[in-house]
């Protein structure tokens, strides 16, 4: 528009102008975004019953800098754990929004992640696919865990050990004993079957 020609001031570099041959300027190196100095730790704490406490887990997660921390009191036998789902979604969202950001999903120990041996393996694989690291604060796999390659067999072994420990603890808990009684298993030493006292009869006199 003619009006803009008079109102706008477009400055032209001195080396450029009518009749001058265009020459490429110096190359500009692409600068990769600098990774954040501090990783994002996403914490998850869980215990099975309302009688158990979460304070020790929360203190440990806060101690390594987890922010935010998702916590709930719910059994791993419950398929849908709302706070766990929120923690996973938060970690994935951060990674998608800032791909170069280092994101670490942190739990106090492996048995806090899920039921059985298969679920912790599936969770670890899900995190790995999204380039999210898994960290355990205690147990035989303490530290940043790599459940792939040669580490997969070791991770599976300790996941199985955690499952056995969890099943033993469940059987000894009030909830486990109540569940066993509902199935007709009362525990304790087996009852001794009573025996009737044999009755002896005098044999008949023989001639």
Describe this structure in words.
This protein has 207 residues and is of the alpha/beta class. It has helices at residues 2-7, 55-63, 82-97, 118-129, 151-172, 174-182, and strands at residues 40-47, 69-73, 103-107, 133-136, 143-145. Strands 2-1-3-4-5 form a five-stranded mixed beta sheet, with helices on both faces. β4 and β5 (143-145) form a beta hairpin. α5 crosses α6 (174-182). It starts with a helix and ends in a 25-residue tail after the last helix. The mean pLDDT is 75.
Assign an overall shape. Answer: elongated
Fraction in helix: 25-40%
- CA radius of gyration: 33 Å
Averaged pLDDT: 75
Number of strands: 5
Strand order of the largest sheet: 2-1-3-4-5
Q: Please, how many helices?
A: 6
Order of helices and strands: HEHEHEHEEHH
Structural class: alpha/beta
Strand content: 5-15%
Largest beta-sheet details: 5 strands, mixed
Q: CA-to-CA gap between the ends?
A: 146 Å
Enumerate the spans where pLDDT stays under 50 for 5 or more consecutive residues. none
Structure summarized in a few sentences:
With 207 residues, the protein is an alpha/beta fold. It contains 6 helices and 5 strands, in the order αβαβαβαββαα.
Annotate the secondary structure layout.
Elements: H1 2-7, E1 40-47, H2 55-63, E2 69-73, H3 82-97, E3 103-107, H4 118-129, E4 133-136, E5 143-145, H5 151-172, H6 174-182
Parallel strand pairs: 1-2, 1-3, 3-4
Antiparallel strand pairs: 4-5
Helix pairs in contact: 5-6
Defining traits:
36% helix, alpha/beta, five-stranded mixed sheet
């Amino acid at each position: 528009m003619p009006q803009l020609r008079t109102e706008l001031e477009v400055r032209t570099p001195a080396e450029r102008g009518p009749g001058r041959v265009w020459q490429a300027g110096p190359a500009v190196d692409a600068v990769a975004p600098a990774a954040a100095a501090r990783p994002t730790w996403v914490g998850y704490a869980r215990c099975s019953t309302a009688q158990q406490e979460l304070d020790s887990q929360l203190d440990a997660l806060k101690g390594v800098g987890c922010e935010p921390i998702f916590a709930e009191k719910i059994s791993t036998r419950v398929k849908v754990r709302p706070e766990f789902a929120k923690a996973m979604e938060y970690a994935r969202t951060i990674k998608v929004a800032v791909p170069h950001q280092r994101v670490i999903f942190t739990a106090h120990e492996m048995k806090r992640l899920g039921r059985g041996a298969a679920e912790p393996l599936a969770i670890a694989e899900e995190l790995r696919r999204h380039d999210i690291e898994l960290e355990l604060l205690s147990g035989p796999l303490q530290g940043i865990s790599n459940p792939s390659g040669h580490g997969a067999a070791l991770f599976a072994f300790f996941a199985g050990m955690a499952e056995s420990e969890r099943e033993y603890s469940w059987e000894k808990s009030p909830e486990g004993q109540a569940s066993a009684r509902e199935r007709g298993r009362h525990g304790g030493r087996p009852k001794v079957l009573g025996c009737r006292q044999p009755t002896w009869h005098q044999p008949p006199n023989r001639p």
